[in-house]
Amino acid sequence: MAALVGGATVVVVRSATVVLLGIAASSSPALAQTESGPYARIAVLRPHDGATVDFEAGYIRHLEWHRAQQDKWVWYGWNVTFGERQRSFVYASFGHSGQSLDNPVAPAEDERDNILNVTPHAYFAGNALYEFLPAVSRGTVVPTPTPRLELTTVDLAQGTGEAFEAALRAEQGSLQAETLWYRLLAGSSTPRYVRLRPRAAVSAILTSDGTLPDAVNTLVARTTVEILTLRPTMSYGLPPPRQ
Q1: Tens-of-pLDDT digits for all 243 residues of the chain?
Q2: Residue 3, SS3?
Q3: Does residue 14 contact residue 210 with C-beta atoms inside 8 Å?
Q4: Could you tell me if 7 and 88 are in contact, meaning their C-beta atoms sit under 8 angstroms apart?
Q5: Which residues have CB under 8 Å from 31's CB, separation 6+?
Q6: I need a surface site. Which of 12, 133, 216, 238 has the fewest CB within 10 A?
Q7: HSE on the CB side for 226, CA within 13 Å?
Q8: Coil, strand or helix at 145
Q9: CATH code that applies to domain 22-234
């Protein structure tokens, strides 16, 4: 999608903001693009007041444009269900190389279709590029599609990124379920990190330990936790969500 956005929504543990993006199309997100790599686009749309129904219909029409263009990226779409930005829409793409990011499908035509179908009903609330951090994660750069997703955004004090990542590496072996960390490269204030924890249900998020290591307490300036709901009809190229 030519116009990019940033954000997510919030069940606050301290506070912050996030952005999510799209990825390549095929029967499996992990195999969806030929130019795979560590990068993710993460963005957010906010429907105008009273325009949610029109926004969703327009966004689905826009996805049909991508289908007609045989877009090779896979696009995730979520609603923020719990958080300060309730009803915002997060879309994201994962597993890209730099070359893949340089070659989205028909950018000018994509933008025209966005202006026709999406922007009359919503505004772009943010957009960012992230890099996946396998050494501190459990899972791959591409998240498993699940009905729910916990999105945690962590803003750090300046100059503390290396110490933060070292603390996460020390805890990596204790991770029991899919836990994906990404470092912000562009699109918002830095240093910022995003953690995605795909889960089958809200209860699975609430009953699993999502606290950060004690060693990072003095490094963190702000943290926001949000719970998102996958929208399969507002996604493109995803297999059925894993329950």
Answers
A1: 644 444 443 333 333 333 333 333 333 443 344 469 999 999 999 999 999 999 999 999 999 999 999 999 999 999 999 998 899 999 999 999 999 999 999 999 999 999 999 999 999 999 999 999 999 999 999 999 999 999 999 999 999 999 999 999 999 999 999 999 999 999 988 899 999 999 999 999 999 999 999 999 999 999 999 999 999 999 999 988 877
A2: coil
A3: no
A4: yes
A5: none
A6: 12
A7: 32
A8: coil
A9: 3.30.70.100
**Within 118-197, where are the H helices?**
161-171
Residue 167 φ/ψ, nearest 5 degrees? -65, -40
Pairing of strands 192-199, 220-230: unpaired
- Cβ(138)–Cβ(179) under 8 Å? yes
Q: Return all residues near 6 (Cβ < 8 A) that are at least 6 apart.
A: 17, 18, 19, 20, 42, 43, 44, 124, 125, 126, 127, 128, 187, 188
Q: What are phi and psi of 199, to 5 degrees?
A: -140, 160
Rg (CA), the chain: 17
| CA–CA distances in Å: residue 216 to residues 55, 169, 188, 212 | 40, 12, 21, 7
Q: Which residues contact 216 (CB under 8 A, 6 or more apart)?
A: 163, 164, 167, 168
